[in-house]
Amino acid sequence: MTSADPFADPAAPAAADRDAAPQFVLPLVVRIERDAPPARTDALETSARAVLAFLSDPRTADGGEWAELLRGWEDGRIRKVVRRARGAEWRRAESLPGITVEGRSARVRVYPPVPLDGWPKELAKLQVSGTELADPEPVGAPDPQLPVLWLNPDLEMSAGKAMAQTGHAAQLAWWALPDAARTAWRDSGFALAVRTPKPSYWAELAESGLPLVRDAGFTEIAPGSCTVIADHPALR
């Protein structure tokens, strides 16, 4: 669905090698009940935290049951696809191995990577569309001590697309952090904020050298579009 900047991770393979490798995708499922949909910003933040929870899970470490799947996924493009579920669909999705992360109103489950054309049937039947979400109340300024994932103010994205993008940004920040900062972030429960800056501040951030997500252009927006900048205090 989307891909982060292939050169953000110094250890990442060259672009041609990444495209030649078997392609995997990281599935995320957001719970959207008709009568109680999550707030948009909370869903974006929870999606990012879910990706971080997966990356830091002991099962992804060397020798862990998800380690080979993680490596295969990172050797290709770090695609993420967000699908929605409700009711019985969500209960079936929760029965598969994965990690559920809860926000204030959002609930997102992340799964170990699957082949691009080999989704489990319980997830393959879920819809990608229909993730139009809104914030019922104005979203205030973020805590200056928190990592912030800044959305490009010039782009329009569905909530599902934006959830994948914030997941990318969180992953790029995780790759860039030293071990001590990773530990502190994990111990905080991966506290973070997602916000949309004024265009002038976005322009300033884009020149800062902070991790920046460039979309592959498979859906919704043009290839190479800059979607999210990861502003972690340890990277400033």
From TrEMBL:
Tell me yes or no: is Hydrolase among this UniProt entry's keywords. Answer: yes
The alphabetized UniProt keywords are: Hydrolase
Q: Which reaction does it catalyse?
A: an N-acyl-L-alpha-aminoacyl-tRNA + H2O = an N-acyl-L-amino acid + a tRNA + H(+)
Q: What are the protein's GO molecular function terms?
A: hydrolase activity
Enzyme Commission (EC) number: 3.1.1.29
| Protein name in UniProt | peptidyl-tRNA hydrolase
Gene source species: Streptantibioticus rubrisoli
